[in-house]
Design brief:
By secondary structure, the chain is mainly beta. The chain has helices at about 5-10, 60, and strands at about 15-25, 35-40, 45-50, 65-70, 75-80, 80-85, 85, 90, 95-100. The protein has a five-stranded antiparallel sheet with strand order 3-2-1-4-7. Strands 5-6 form a two-stranded antiparallel sheet.
Length: about 110
């Protein structure tokens, strides 16, 4: 079991809905990955990220998909690529990432709560 946190700690993590607007392979990554640009709407704008999601997704299949991502982590250098957000996923039975997303279309930039 993980450590219990206060609700105020949870509120510090800014998880928003975005739409993947561009995706391409990231062959320079240590493990197979895809680079993405995600649009979080007018207040946050576009952010770049990469994710090891090649088992279940192609770059073409990701474009247009809504995703959930943490937008208030500091940028992180991933190889030669600067990641500006963290898309969220959960492992399938084989440990491969399945992206989290709303089950209905929602406005971009909507905050998870």
């Amino acid at each position: 079991m993980t450590e219990t946190i206060a609700f105020d700690d949870f509120l510090k993590v800014d998880i928003r809905v975005g739409r993947v607007i561009a995706a391409e392979p990231y062959p320079e990554a240590r493990a197979p990955a895809i680079k993405m640009r995600v649009d979080f709407g007018p207040d946050i704008g576009e952010r770049k990220t990469s994710a090891q999601v090649t088992t279940h997704y192609t770059p073409e299949a990701l474009v247009g998909r809504q995703v959930l991502a943490v937008v208030n982590f500091p940028p992180k250098q991933i190889g030669k690529y600067m990641s500006e957000c963290l898309v969220l996923g959960a492992p399938d039975a084989d440990g491969q990432v399945v992206l989290l997303r709303p089950d209905q279309e929602v406005p971009l930039g909507g905050r998870m709560f």
